[in-house]
Write a structure and sequence with these properties.
about 15% strand, 3-stranded mixed beta sheet, 12 helices, binds nicotinamide-adenine-dinucleotide, binds 2'deoxy-thymidine-5'-diphospho-alpha-D-glucose, Rossmann fold, alpha/beta
Length: about 350
């Protein structure tokens, strides 16, 4: 069956994996990658599929209402998978308004564009909003986030994602827009921008630079290989029930310091360093304000209803990720030049 799907944020980390999966798995679909190409968007992330006949790129900001209307008129999409966002918690602490604009207003603009273009014919349409487990706030030492956990965001990033989730559900309840949502845990893998923990530390180990661990390093995250997230998005898009939410996570919790030590060990092996070399780079630095202590997803619903489960173990995924970064030093060089240097100095200066 042929479909046209707009994927927003397809030049970013997760979006590029979703675009690649859909372009290659569904040759009868037309895939439209809508992306403003901010500092986090990079066409090098999808270079390998950009010549595919079912791939289209539109440089478009979701804050531009007329541009969105024109794009919907041009493609008449059957579905939207919305990943475009400001995604880094530390940047949200410095510039919260950027997150309100893109994550909240941009999402409402996209909802309006879909509602307007699809008016009267919601049959076989789908608006899929990709969200995060951070909307649920922080867990204590036990328990998991389920789909019914109360929202309790603590950072400007998670507050903006929470607001966007509420708008998406409101458009379902008020206008019957056929929406579906998922809230996922921390992703890692190829094309991850090196402002986030794992790629930042891989890059710093390569550069022999300090590894800045926030606070006591005992914060816990639940890590999922990005390709497994993309596979879950495929399932939710095609088989998720309208109006429903699905939590996605790897049942794979790591305290930051334990993860960093594993990363150091694997990097030393790959680089031929003597054991313990990279661990010496670990430096405890001042904590992130409002830092959530622990995230952990209960992914029972997506697993029992849609049959999803992660395809790789953490050690396998981390190994694949490290290999990718070691083989793609040019990509790393490109994304860490320019604006990145200023960001890095400001973020880690004290
Ligand atoms: P990313 O920062 O790597 O990519 C974001 C993309 O959105 C970039 O290509 C950027 O150019 C584009 N973009 C930003 N502002 C835009 C605008 N105003 N108009 C159009 N495009 C714009 O993000 P990511 O890590 O790939 O995350 C993608 C989505 O998944 C986000 O919605 C994020 O909240 C969610 N998410 C991320 C994770 C994670 O671990 N990275 C986990 C769960 C959910
Ligand atoms: O949980 C899903 C979320 O995961 C996504 O919604 C976000 O878009 C994504 O950025 C990620 O958020 P985190 O804040 O958890 O990821 P980050 O890689 O920034 O940090 C992971 C942990 O590592 C967190 O406890 C903070 C810590 N950290 C991070 C950096 C960048 C450090 O100790 N030092 C660092 O330099």
């Amino acid at each position: 069956m042929s479909k046209t799907i707009v994927i927003t944020g397809g030049a970013g980390f997760i979006g590029s994996h979703v675009v690649r999966l859909f372009v290659t798995k569904y040759p009868s679909y037309q895939i439209v990658n809508l992306d403003a190409l901010t500092y986090a968007g990079n066409l090098e992330n999808i270079r390998d599929i950009e010549k595919s006949p079912n791939y289209n790129f539109e440089k478009q900001n979701i804050l531009d209402v007329e541009g969105l209307d024109a794009l919907f008129a041009k493609y008449n999409p059957d579905g939207v998978i919305h990943l475009a966002a400001e995604s880094h918690v530390d940047r949200s602490i410095v510039s919260p308004l950027d997150f309100v604009y893109t994550n909240v207003i941009g999402t409402v603009n996209l909802l309006n564009a879909a509602k307007k273009a699809w008016q009267g014919s919601f049959q076989d349409r789908r608006f899929y909003h990709v969200s995060t487990d951070e909307v649920y706030g922080a867990l204590g030492q036990t328990g998991f986030f389920t789909e019914s956990t109360r929202y309790d965001p603590h950072s400007p990033y998670s507050a903006s994602k929470a607001a966007s989730d509420h708008f998406v559900r409101a458009y379902h309840d008020t206008y019957s827009l056929p929406i579906v949502l998922s809230n996922c845990s921390n992703n890692y893998g190829p094309y991850h921008f090196p402002e986030k923990l794992i790629p930042l530390f891989i890059n710093n180990i390569i550069q022999k630079k300090p590894l800045p661990v926030y606070g006591d390093g005992l914060y816990t995250r639940d890590w999922l290989f990005v390709k497994d997230h993309a596979l879950a998005i495929d399932l939710v898009f095609h088989q998720g029930k309208p109006g429903e939410t699905y939590n996605i996570g790897g049942f794979n919790e790591w305290k930051n310091i334990e993860l960093v030590k594993l990363l150091c060990k694997l990097m030393d092996e790959k680089l031929g360093n003597s054991p313990g070399t990279s661990e010496k780079l670990i430096t405890y630095v001042k904590d992130r304000p409002g830092h959530d202590r622990r995230y952990a997803i209960d992914a029972t619903k997506i697993s029992s209803e849609l049959g999803w489960k992660p395809s790789v173990t953490f050690e396998q995924g981390l190994g694949l990720t490290i290999d990718w970064y070691l083989e793609n030093t040019e990509w790393l060089k490109h994304v860490t030049s320019g604006e990145y240097q200023q960001y890095y100095t400001k973020q880690y200066q004290s």
